[in-house]
Amino acid sequence: KQWYQRRVAITAGGLVNCCVEQNEEGNAAFVKAMEMASVLQERGPVALRMAKKSITEGFEAGPIRAGLDVEHECYLGVIPTTDRIEALMAFKEKRKPNFKGE
Predict the structure, then answer these.
(1) Contacts within 8 Å (CB) and 24+ apart, 58-63
(2) How far apart are the first and last CA of the chain?
(3) C-beta of residue 11 within 8 angstroms of C-beta of residue 5
(4) How far are the Cα atoms of 34, 51, 71, 94 from residue 44, in angstroms, in the given order?
(5) Is the pLDDT of residue 5 over 70?
(6) How far apart are CA 98 and CA 78, in angstroms?
(7) Is the pLDDT of residue 3 over 50?
(8) Are residues 8 and 16 in contact, defined by beta-carbon separation less than 8 angstroms?
(9) Helix %, strand %, coil % for the chain, to 5?
(10) Under 8 Å CB-to-CB from 21, ≥6 apart: which residues?
(11) 99 phi and psi, to 5 degrees?
(12) Contacts 24+ apart (CB under 8 A), 3-7
């Protein structure tokens, strides 16, 4: 079993976050995916979109320098957003942020 988990992680570019034992209902992977998605749902949509773009396009960019350029462009896309300001203010005020996707 351990070999299989490592093999999947290598095959998927090291992006396997976890493996779960199957449950009686046969939907253990779906249940775990929904748990993970609920955590992401609380994050800023603009930052998530840019992170996803950075990962996807960064992997496809070729040399590491090109991937870092993609990441930098995505970061610059987050800087002027109101969600970024909201995140900083929420952190300062020790409260949950109220993201609007702007």
Answers:
(1) 59/13
(2) 44
(3) no
(4) 18, 10, 17, 16
(5) no
(6) 16
(7) no
(8) yes
(9) 65, 0, 35
(10) 28
(11) -75, 145
(12) none
How far is the C-alpha of 27 from the C-alpha of 12, rounded, in Å?
Answer: 21
Distance between CA 15 and CA 52 in Å, rounded? 13
Summarize pLDDT for 15-46 with one digit per residue, the tens: 556 778 888 998 988 898 888 778 777 788 89
SS (H, E, C) 41-74: HCCCHHHHHHHHHHHHHHHHCCCHHHHHHHHHHH
> Does the reported pTM lie above 0.85?
no
**Per-residue tokens: 40:** 């992401």
State the residue for tokens 């970061």: 75
